[in-house]
Amino acid sequence: MPLTVSERYTRTAKLLHWLLALMILGSLGVGWYMTGLPMSVQRLKLFNWHKWAGITILTLSALRLLWRLSHPAPALPASMPAWQRLASHASHGAMYVLFFAVPLLGWAYSSAAGFPIVWFGVLPLPDWVPRSRELAELIKPWHGWAAYTLAAVVAVHVAAALKHHFIDKDQVLRRMLPVST
Description:
- With 181 residues, the chain is mostly helical.
- It is built from four helices and two strands; from the N terminus they run αααββα.
- A two-stranded antiparallel ribbon has the order 1-2.
- Helix 1 runs antiparallel to helix 2 and helix 3 packs antiparallel against helix 4.
């Protein structure tokens, strides 16, 4: 049965969701891969790409949050137990916090380490923490922990969506699919 307009997310919400999903997964993968490389031109290029992706994720996250605040999500199924509603709201809240925390911690680390960010090689971004080796060493693990936490919350989010689709057979996943069914 097709979903009504009020049961689906808007096209803009879907676009931002899937674009951020792809960028976050790509950035997590590149971040994990590049840290294991020896110092090289390849590693430096990947670090720059990772920073550009992080700033883009930060920007899109702000747009997504603004859109979400002005366009409420469709209601969860009435059949969903209260604990699942709470878990859904908590995991979405955690993701939004991490959408901002991960790139901001990366930007802070880059600033403290003395490696400025020039977004796409064109727009120099200001350092927003002072240059300090000690501060950089303090921030660096927080960026990694936040990124791994985001990966874990995203994995739970995906598992829950698949559970709703294949086990509960409700409309939770279908309302966010890029193609309306």
